[in-house]
């Protein structure tokens, strides 16, 4: 429900945006913007959009945040969620969920970098389960084929169209060298040779620095646009999962990559729809879950 907080916390979106602006000033936006978008996807894919990825691990419970696949999630993305929550607790304590904060931030950062804007549905409640093993098992991996990717998306109620459309978030994303190392060091001929020559300089073999990252969109990594799809058709996608969108056997996937590469307005329209749909995955409402006082831990 878009107007869920109209009476209980009418300035919710303004407060969140104000905290985002503060955070953007000292920190490079190329870290925060893709970081928040990735954090939202990782949250929704496991246990639904319930803020379960935000929970810190304890001695008793190894949370999603501690799964190997989540260790590269940006610390500044977690931090802005915490800052927004603290500001909201002063304005309207115990009202706004951490999962709603993350959903609103995901929309705001896309629009900040010249991407589409959409109305964020609200009323999510925060989950009570966060398990690292589950996250490691369920999250898509960077070398999965398109059949496996589609099956994973379908398991959470999303379609092939959603897969291709949401992958467009990689237009502002980054990936660590380890995720595509096998492609550049085994001289994968499906990867554009000029891109390989460029990224191999920052990802020397065999001593791969796990902290070094490269832009997923090597043409316009600081603008939310459709050039990611253009680059895929030129075999410039670093991740195998991205490459498969344009060149695997799935006709719908290949068709959508082509259409989005030709029509940015269409991509923007469909991306907004897909983000709304993603935000509905596994939502807790009513008496389910809780409204956390601190996004990092259960009440």
UniProtKB/TrEMBL annotation:
Ca(2+) 1 binds at residues 43, 46, 48, 50, 52, 64. One of its GO terms (biological process) is hydrogen peroxide catabolic process. Keywords: Calcium, Disulfide bond, Heme, Hydrogen peroxide, Iron, Metal-binding, Oxidoreductase, Peroxidase, Secreted. Pfam families: peroxidase (PF00141). Ca(2+) 2 binds at residues 171, 217, 225. Substrate binds at residue 140. InterPro entries: Haem_peroxidase (IPR002016), Haem_peroxidase_sf (IPR010255), Peroxidase_pln (IPR000823), Peroxidases_heam-ligand_BS (IPR019793), Secretory_peroxidase (IPR033905). Its EC number is 1.11.1.7. It is found in: Secreted. GO terms for cellular component: extracellular region. It catalyses: 2 a phenolic donor + H2O2 = 2 a phenolic radical donor + 2 H2O. Gene3D superfamilies: 1.10.520.10, Peroxidase, domain 2. The active site is at residue 42. The record marks 38 as: Transition state stabilizer. One of its GO terms (molecular function) is lactoperoxidase activity. The keyword Amino-acid biosynthesis does not apply. Disulfide bonds join 9-92, 44-49, 98-295, 177-203. Its cofactor is Ca(2+); heme b. It comes from the Eukaryota. Heme b binds at residue 170. Residues 1-299 form the Plant heme peroxidase family profile domain. Binds 2 calcium ions per subunit. Removal of H(2)O(2), oxidation of toxic reductants, biosynthesis and degradation of lignin, suberization, auxin catabolism, response to environmental stresses such as wounding, pathogen attack and oxidative stress. These functions might be dependent on each isozyme/isoform in each plant tissue. Belongs to the peroxidase family. Ascorbate peroxidase subfamily. Belongs to the peroxidase family. Classical plant (class III) peroxidase subfamily. PANTHER family: PEROXIDASE 55 (PTHR31517:SF51), PTHR31517. This is Peroxidase. It comes from Papaver somniferum (Opium poppy).
């Amino acid at each position: 429900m878009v107007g869920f907080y109209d009476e209980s916390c009418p300035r919710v979106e303004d407060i969140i945006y104000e905290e985002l602006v503060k955070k953007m000033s000292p920190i490079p936006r190329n870290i925060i913007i893709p970081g928040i978008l990735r954090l939202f996807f990782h949250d929704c894919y496991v246990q639904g959009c319930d803020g379960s990825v935000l929970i810190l691990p304890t001695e008793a419970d190894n949370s999603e945040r501690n799964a190997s696949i989540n260790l590269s999630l940006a610390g500044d993305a977690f931090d802005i969620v915490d800052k927004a929550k603290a500001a909201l607790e002063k304005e309207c304590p115990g009202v706004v969920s951490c999962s709603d904060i993350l959903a609103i931030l995901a929309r705001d950062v896309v629009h900040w970098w010249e991407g589409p804007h959409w109305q964020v549905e609200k009323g999510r409640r925060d989950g009570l389960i966060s398990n690292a093993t589950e996250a490691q098992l369920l999250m898509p991996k960077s070398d999965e084929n398109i059949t496996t990717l589609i099956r994973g998306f379908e398991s959470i109620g999303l379609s092939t169209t959603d897969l291709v459309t949401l992958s467009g978030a990689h237009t502002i994303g980054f990936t660590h060298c380890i995720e595509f190392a096998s492609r550049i060091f085994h001289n994968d001929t499906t990867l554009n040779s000029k891109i390989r020559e460029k990224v191999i300089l920052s990802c020397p073999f065999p001593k791969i620095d796990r902290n070094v990252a490269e832009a997923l969109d090597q043409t316009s990594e600081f603008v939310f646009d459709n050039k990611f799809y253009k680059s895929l058709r030129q075999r410039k996608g670093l991740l195998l999962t991205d490459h498969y969108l344009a060149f695997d056997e799935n006709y719908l996937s290949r068709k959508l990559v082509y259409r989005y590469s030709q029509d940015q307005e269409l991509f923007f329209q469909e991306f907004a729809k897909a983000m709304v749909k993603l935000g509905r995955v596994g939502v807790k409402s009513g008496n389910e879950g809780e409204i956390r006082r601190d996004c990092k831990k259960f009440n």
